[in-house]
Amino acid sequence: MRSLIDIQELSVREIDELMDCADDIIEKPQKYADACRGKKLATLFFEPSTRTRLSFEAAMYELGGNVLGFSEAQSSSASKGESVADTAKVVSCYADIIAMRHPKEGAPLVASMNASVPVINAGDGGHNHPTQTLADLLTIRRERGKISDFTIGFCGDLKFGRTVHSLISALSRYSGIKVVLISPDELKLPGYIKRDILEKNGIEYSENSDLAEVLPSLDILYMTRVQKERFFSEEEYLRLKDSYILTPEKLLHAKKDLAVLHPLPRVNEIAVGVDADPRACYFKQVLNGKYMRMALILKLLEVTV
Ligand code: NCD
After folding, report:
1. Which CATH architecture has domain 131-285?
2. 0.90 surpassed by pTM
3. For 181, how many CA atoms within 13 A lie in the half-sphere containing its CB?
4. Which of 90, 132, 205, 293 has its CA 20 to 30 A from that of 117?
5. What separation in Å is there between the alpha carbon of 227 and the centre of ligand 1?
């Protein structure tokens, strides 16, 4: 039995197979409509979510399965003091697979060590978010035809942005990837990711605080929200929240085949006027997330179609 806590637990080959499966689901959804009949997914969300929880639920329904769960810690026994380990043991009695989001880094790992069913990390604090990475990778592959030989800029909150951490970790295993890190000084990518992932894998990277300066060199731009909930001071958040705002004017200087990604929710970092630009891929990314979660559920439940 396997869980998915960190994207590194999947080999590049397995990720490629998940993307092949998602492509097949997109082409022939009917083939998968009964694949998880009789199976239950539990969504245990101790932190707010729209896309991740609903896409997991939609994914399970589209596989013919059922869903149970909660969407806030207050409505679960965590509010009475139950531990993550106990919650995982209990929910294993009701469900065949668990998707968990938690504000504490490592909570889904603890759940996976105590559950008797697979656990999927649906975001743990400012740490990791592997299923968003699966959505990001499928979007890159569908837009560019392959995952290699491009320059990707990560812009915004690189310190707390867990989607950034997981995507960098995944991309470090593909070839010909160059990374440009665009953030204010206060929100730079953590040193451990630079050392243990970028440097260890020989990935060429640079750091810059000026989006306009590097935009023309990018093939992919991954915008992110400043992660308000991880800040200790409201004042600091207010000072940094509008550090970068992508506008149609700024995009005039970008490549014609740039792909703009964003895990969403967006606050101000992409002007609504950008949405009509064919380079805006963030709503496609949402849909791709559902298909990759379908593929992942099939894999972890060992269902063959
Ligand atoms: C992201 C998250 O939860 O980390 N959202 C998502 O799952 N698509 C990004 C964010 O909240 O900024």
Report:
1. 3-Layer(aba) Sandwich (3.40)
2. yes
3. 24
4. 132
5. 9
